[in-house]
User: Fold these one by one.
Assistant:
Number 1:
Amino acid sequence: MTDATLARIADALERMAPPPAPTPDWQAATAFVWHANPDHLAPVPRVNRVALDLLRGIDRSRDTLLANTAQFAAGLPANNALLWGARGMGKSSLVKAVHAACLTDAPDLKLVEVQREDLPSIGRLLTLLRAAPVRVILFCDDLSFSHDDQHYKSLKAVLDGGVEGRPDNVIFYATSNRRHLMPRDMIENERSSAINPSEAVEEKVSLSDRFGLWLGFHACTQDEYLAMIRGYCAAYGLVIADARLIAEAIEWQATRGSRSGRVAWQFFCDLAGRSGVAI
């Protein structure tokens, strides 16, 4: 066997069994993104988030998640959290804002985002985090599963189960538009086509049961929508007559066909741009 052949075999083996992920510099940033193939944690120099006090209409969810995160940061018992409900109502923004709010008292609290398509590699990520000298909020945004998606099985051991279990220095937060992380028609199809319908559904629905906190987000009222915009105006020093703000904000929501925190922010961005205010 030639040296060239041996080199090709060695390269193939390296690809099949990649080296362990390098230990990240935890002081390089407050937030990181997990990338698989090759495994590594990339620091995020500037996190895209808004201040906690600018999130309106979600007071109960805000206070509950903030208290849970503060407990975890202090080394006390805390629950994994599933933030579910209406789109654009600040689910992912709340996770990032709560993390920022806790940094004052817990500067070593890190936020690590993992993409849904990288869930099969989460076991390797947990091995890396288990040895970390920091406490970590593991965050997956827009988590959901389709009919033939098996990624949820990788997640079960992270939440509750497996021999090793979740590391003591890791907590898992996820956002989803669905309470049970899968479409209702998929659940009905499982019931109608399975040999044992209840077992087929329980296997998938049990995933959401492993979250100790379920925080629901619902569509905002018009008053809450306007309060969000007024809050942004006050925070960024944009002065506008209230009557004009109300008229333009309502027209904006009508053209979008929806009313949410995301729509409020999009209107404010448009308003700030027309008013010459940098944000």
Note: The chain has two domains: 31-217, 222-275.
Number 2:
Amino acid sequence: MTEAPRHSRSPHIRIGIGGWTYEPWRGVFYPTGLPQRRELEYASRKLSSIEINGTYYGSQKPDSFARWHDETPDDFVFALKGPRFATARRELAGAGASIERFFASGVLMLKDKLGPINWQMPPSKRFDPDDFEAFLKLLPASIEGRAIRHAVEVRHDSFRSPDFVALARRYRVAIVTAGDSSYPQIADASAPFIYARIMGTSESQEQGYSAQALDAWVERVRAWAAGQAPAGLEAVGREPAPGVPRDVFLYVISGFKVSNPAAAMALIERVG
């Protein structure tokens, strides 16, 4: 995988949720009576990004990507989950055909709204340096002239290794930071952007998180965007990443899912 081009501009901070179709959000996040076909239109005007989960389970139609592009504001961005057929396999080096089918399925119809691809590994997948590097080599840096950003979400403790962090940095692939969860936390910056998924919303908090917890995540987001290492997160690399500004993508997922949109909106308001 060759390097994607570097861009000299101010970093973007994008905050959102996983998916937009969830029945318990109706009448809580979505206004009562809002037609289901308008839920993405509504959500995309309250949030700055959404992670599409359906692409993990199967191919979507090109017309769907085109419609999602047209229903959202100009500055909105989608992150996509890469297909499980590429990551839930014994040998990642054999994922080439699945990756090619994914990018041929119509994802480029999102145009400038195509954000990072999250390649989520199953919790049982252990770190095999040679096999993992073979997988990273399969990830295209660009397609049809459009730069593609990649993130890897690993969930086995064997990835808490400086060698894994060094490998991700070599290929400029982001390591997904797992926040407020039981998954291993690897908060090392390894790409020109940060990808975080926070999973600690609670039924006891009106906005999913306490005000103190929301403020802590805002400070981390701002630190990442400024090229700094945030406080309170676990990194494992031997050397810190260069202190350069980075785009930040943060998604509120899992936890008490009913409150995830409220938490995301509270973070957006605080970031300002």
Note: The domain at 13-271 is CATH 3.20.20.410 (TIM Barrel).
